Amino acid sequence: MYFTSLPNHKEIGFDEQLHFSKFKRHNVIFNAISNLSYCERHVGCLSIKTVVSGEEWYNIDNREIAVRPGQFLMLNDDQEYSCRIDGPEKTNIISVFFSKDFSSSVFRDALCNEDTLLDSPFESIGKAPEFFQTLYNNDIRLQQKLQNLVLSLNDCGYDNDRVDESLTFLLHDLLCAHKAEVHRVGRVSAIKPNTKTEIYKRLCIAKDFMHSTFMYKSDLSLMSQTACLSAPQLIRQFKAVFKTTPHQYLTQIRLAYAVRLLKHSTMSVNEITLACGFEDTSAFCRSFKKEYSVSPGSFRKMI
Predict the structure, then answer these.
(1) 86-131, pLDDT tens digit by residue?
(2) Alpha-carbon 115 to chain mean position
(3) Cα separation of 97 and 119, whole Å?
(4) What is the longest distance spanned by two Cα atoms in the chain?
(5) What residues form DSSP beta bridges with 91?
(6) How confident is the model at residue 126, as a pLDDT?
(7) Is there a contact between 202 and 227 (Cβ–Cβ < 8 Å)?
(8) Residues near 46 by Cβ (< 8 Å), separated by ≥ 6?
(9) Alpha helices in the chain (DSSP H)
(10) Angstrom distance (rounded) from CA 70 to CA 138
């Protein structure tokens, strides 16, 4: 199923039960543009959330996560969440919901050997992989698959077989992204596997917190409280896993956003300083030049 507009859950006569029942039976794709949308509660299936422009906010387990261009968010089966778009800028979202039967069959094909698949081609996989519900970098290959899928849907309409083929390869890429996250879990300084996984999940909460609030003054104490890790443990484990400290990671987020604004906006350097959360223009220019070897003004002229 393919939708090019977001439903208005508050519209008179809107049947939420009917709407959400579709996600259990079908793969569902949204490609929509909106500057005002709100879903108070959704218990969905495995899904990927991306935006081409603007931002969409999700509330998962009482934490707020902003999805912006260049990132995607994974949510697992039966995860309760809410989402909203309420900024002045229009947001172009692309979300894909995978039905449980479909995703299970793809995961079984990806994770079982060929002999097993030949002997029992139609068995279920059992327990499906549990994705880390965190922000991922939207690499070029994955982004291209999503863009090609949307272009095909717009040009040729929804054909179930063609879409299922595209979603099969998309799920394989998402599984590769998940395996990369599992590899990072191994970097956590702990002995028990369950402890490693739990610490990694909390580090991801801190990472998502920085991505979502980078425009505000940094607060290591608040970040550690949000992640339920002491500040020293957060710093030590974050460096072990992501090869950089939380402060350095936050600076990278801010500089990446500054580059986007220098390329795609007419905002002044002073305005960009404030938008990116730097204390003052001098600090912004020093950090930018250290990272890119040119000043922000010179960088803009080079584009």
Answers:
(1) 877 899 999 999 998 899 899 988 888 888 888 887 777 667 789 9
(2) 35
(3) 30
(4) 66
(5) 34
(6) 66
(7) yes
(8) 74, 75, 76, 77, 97, 98, 100, 103, 128, 131
(9) 16-25, 100-111, 114-119, 140-156, 160-185, 193-213, 220-227, 231-242, 246-264, 269-276, 281-292, 296-302
(10) 5
Spatial separation of the C-alpha atoms in residues 189 and 15, rounded to whole Å: 49
Six-digit token pair at 150?
A: 């949307």
What are the boundaries of each domain within the chain?
2-185, 193-302
Phi-psi label, residue 54: left if phi above 0, alpha if psi -120 to 50, beta otherwise:
left
Q: How big is the chain by its Cα radius of gyration, in Å?
A: 21
Q: What is the pLDDT at residue 38?
A: 87
- Measuring CA to CA, which residue among 99, 89, 188, 184 is closest to residue 136? 184
Give the CA distances from residue 274 to residues 107, 257, 283, in Å, rounded to whole numbers and listed in that order: 45, 12, 11
Two structure tokens written together for 96: 């894909």
Low-confidence stretches of the chain (pLDDT beneath 70): 19, 125-126
Give the position of tokens 């010179």: 298
pTM higher than 0.85, yes or no?
yes
Cα–Cα nearest to 57, from 28, 32, 91: 91
Residues ≥6 apart with Cβ < 8 Å to 188? 195, 196, 199, 200, 203, 237, 240, 241
What class is the 193-302 domain? Answer: mainly alpha
CA dist 234 and 251 (Å) reads 17
Query: What superfamily does domain 2-185 belong to in CATH?
Result: Regulatory protein AraC (2.60.120.280)
